[in-house]
């Protein structure tokens, strides 16, 4: 029996639309082993919205990987431990895809590199901003190249912490994509390019003075926040408590917050403020996952 652990991920980091993301210490895990035939899928807690047949995203990813490897996947037993909130902008689908590919790689002994895993995962997900940090850990910048994807890690200091504000409602990626315009003004594109540079410089230099300004996006957040009840109030609450910056996590509705490490009371203080904001928000103080997905033998 094996177990694969896959971290949650926050795509975009606001200004790095579809190209930049970070891994968080919130994990989905999958126990798995080969069977002679058939498919058995169990959940550690009830999850009626997750298919337990061939439509399951983990199984689909594993079968796709097996096809790419030129091998046949055996019968499977899976048990899912779902800790990443579903349809909240924390990379739950990316975790399933990465987990499924690593499952196939383990059972079939293909010995795939991280680059090969990334290539197929990005193909299935549609973009690399979530799957890259789920695979590599930390903060990752990814770009499409002629022969695959280029990934570069960005160092993150131990003096920077992360908190997420997760609402009680969901937001599908499809709906969040539908509100985006087909084109944007040149000045908005230039603004995002400039702020992306400022964001990377802030992380490299470990100078977070202008991190809030660097997270000012014009390509997707202004449109998507209209779908998220209490968005502006949650952002303001985070800044009032001393956060360096706050922005939409992926397509939303979760909000990603950067703060100084060591602020252990931040979660409690933010939760007190969230109680008065509609939407059933919950504060979760976490940290960067710096390892990425991995498989262990049980």
Automatic annotation (TrEMBL):
ATP binds at residues 85-95. GO terms for biological process: threonine biosynthetic process. Keywords: Amino-acid biosynthesis, ATP-binding, Cytoplasm, Kinase, Nucleotide-binding, Threonine biosynthesis, Transferase. InterPro entries: GHMP_kinase_C_dom (IPR013750), GHMP_kinase_C_sf (IPR036554), GHMP_kinase_N_dom (IPR006204), GHMP_knse_ATP-bd_CS (IPR006203), Homoserine_kinase (IPR000870), Ribosomal_Su5_D2-typ_SF (IPR020568), Ribsml_uS5_D2-typ_fold_subgr (IPR014721). Pathway: Amino-acid biosynthesis; L-threonine biosynthesis; L-threonine from L-aspartate: step 4/5. It is found in: Cytoplasm. GO terms for cellular component: cytoplasm. Its main location: cytoplasm. It holds the Pfam family GHMP_kinases_N. Residues 200-273 form the GHMP kinase C-terminal domain. Catalyzes the ATP-dependent phosphorylation of L-homoserine to L-homoserine phosphate. This is Homoserine kinase. It comes from Guopingia tenuis.
């Amino acid at each position: 029996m094996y177990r694969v652990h896959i971290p949650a991920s926050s795509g975009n980091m606001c200004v790095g639309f579809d190209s930049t993301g970070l891994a968080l210490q919130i994990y989905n895990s999958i126990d798995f082993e080969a069977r002679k035939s058939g498919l058995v899928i169990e959940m550690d807690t009830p999850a009626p919205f997750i298919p337990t047949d061939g439509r399951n995203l983990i199984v689909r990813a594993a079968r796709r990987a097996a096809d790419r490897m030129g091998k046949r996947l055996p019968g499977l037993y899976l048990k899912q431990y779902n800790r990443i909130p579903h349809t909240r902008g924390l990379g739950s689908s990316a975790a399933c895809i990465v987990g499924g590919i690593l499952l196939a790689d383990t059972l079939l002994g293909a010995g795939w590199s991280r680059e090969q895993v990334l290539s197929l995962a990005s193909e299935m997900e549609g973009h690399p901003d979530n799957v890259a940090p789920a695979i590599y850990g930390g903060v990752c910048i990814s770009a499409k190249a002629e022969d695959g994807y280029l990934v570069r890690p960005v160092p993150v200091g131990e003096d920077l912490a992360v908190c997420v504000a997760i609402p009680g409602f969901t937001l599908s990626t499809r709906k969040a994509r539908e509100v985006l315009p087909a084109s944007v003004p040149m000045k908005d594109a230039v603004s995002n390019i400039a702020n992306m540079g400022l964001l990377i410089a802030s992380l490299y230099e470990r100078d977070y003075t202008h991190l809030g300004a660097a997270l000012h996006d014009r390509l997707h957040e202004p449109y998507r926040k209209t779908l998220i009840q209490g968005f502006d109030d949650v952002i303001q609450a985070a800044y009032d408590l001393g956060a360096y910056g706050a922005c939409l996590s992926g397509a939303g509705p979760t909000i990603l917050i950067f703060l100084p490490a060591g602020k252990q009371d931040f979660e409690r203080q933010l939760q007190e403020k969230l109680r008065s904001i509609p939407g059933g928000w919950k504060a979760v103080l976490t940290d960067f996952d710096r390892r990425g997905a991995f498989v262990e033998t049980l």
